[in-house]
Amino acid sequence: MTRQVRATCTQLIGYCAWNEKQFDCCDHFATLETEVGTCYTINSLHSSTSKPPLQMISNRHTGPGKLELHLLENTQVYLHGADEVPFINHPLEEQFTVELGQTVTAIFLIREIVNDPFLESVSVEQRACRWASSENFLSTHVLYSYSTCIVDCRARAQMEICSCVSQFMPRMGGFPACDLNGLICLQENKENFNNLRLNTSNAKGLACDCMASCDEPEINIVETLYEGFDRRNYWPVSWT
Asked: Which of 67, 71, 101, 109 has its CA 20 to 30 A from that of 12?
């Protein structure tokens, strides 16, 4: 039913260009199932597409890169690393609600992580990070990252309390999607499932033992500009 209601890629994205050079949007924006719904993502390691990754290189030699998208519907846009996924606890500064007829300009810096080869000989506890493929223990995703670890942790908590998982959750063997009674259970325990807490805290929420990926890039938002919409009368409803 959701597939019949949701916009397809061609219905959602009308124009794409990297550094003023147009490319076919739906050749490169591939479907990705996430706990916040079906997304279209570019150059993600979690999506499958027959096209090679689009070369979106931005460094001191090439200069700043510019990705331009023309969206045909109200859209939630997420910034994330190649091994990360959009998730319920996605940082607010790395997601944008774009209303139809509105222009949003996001200026950000990405610092890639380069690891010393010696790091592989250090224990996970000492380096406080995991390798995305060789040290992945998750059931929901084939690659480890902080966000995929949180999604996996949430799925296991839903299964433990409600004996099922959200219909948006990536499919896991032996983890059935919730029926009506299960959805009621998820709603009744929403605060416990959606919030994150420290192991030492008594607050409601998940205490997930999740660390960063060893290759996780650092994203810093410099500025976000909104045009064509009066944000004084705007209250976002889908940012959590």
From this structure: 109
